[in-house]
Design a protein that fits this description.
The protein is mainly alpha-helical. The chain has a domain of 45 residues. The protein has a two-stranded antiparallel sheet with strand order 1-2. The longest helix has 23 residues. It comes from Nocardioides zhouii. Keywords: Membrane, Transmembrane, Transmembrane helix. InterPro entries: LysM (IPR018392), LysM_dom_sf (IPR036779).
Length: 117
């Protein structure tokens, strides 16, 4: 008589040993504080690269123009722009006066750049 033995096609996987490490409230607070300290230290080190100069900057030369009835920002900028870059001058006027739109009111005073050639 002969015997037949069958081996399983796959072996069951052994489960890894489960650890029961749990943090207490004080442990969680310690981990949080250490993480916060690392983040603040990284921010401090990276912010150290921001450098200013010891000298004051030179302001751009400007003059004040009072808006007349019917004046537009395009018209004022085209009068000032000697090189034909009207849009660039419009953007500069908007930046100098912190304008949110291109609408102007009669009597409004605008700071405009003095362009030199």
């Amino acid at each position: 008589m002969s015997t037949l033995s069958l081996a399983p096609a796959f072996a069951p996987l052994a489960r890894p040993a489960r650890t029961t490490v749990r943090l207490t409230r004080r442990g969680r607070l310690t981990v949080f504080m250490l993480s916060l300290l690392v983040a603040l230290t990284a921010a401090f080190v990276l912010a150290g690269g921001a450098v200013g100069t010891g000298e004051a900057g030179q302001p751009a030369p400007t003059e004040i123009v009072q808006v007349a009835p019917g004046d537009t920002l395009w018209g004022i900028a085209s009068d000032i722009a000697t090189d034909g870059d009207v849009r660039g001058v419009m953007n500069e006027i908007e930046r100098l006066n912190a304008l949110e739109s291109t609408g102007l009111a009669a009597g409004q005073k605008l700071r405009v750049p003095v362009l030199t050639d």
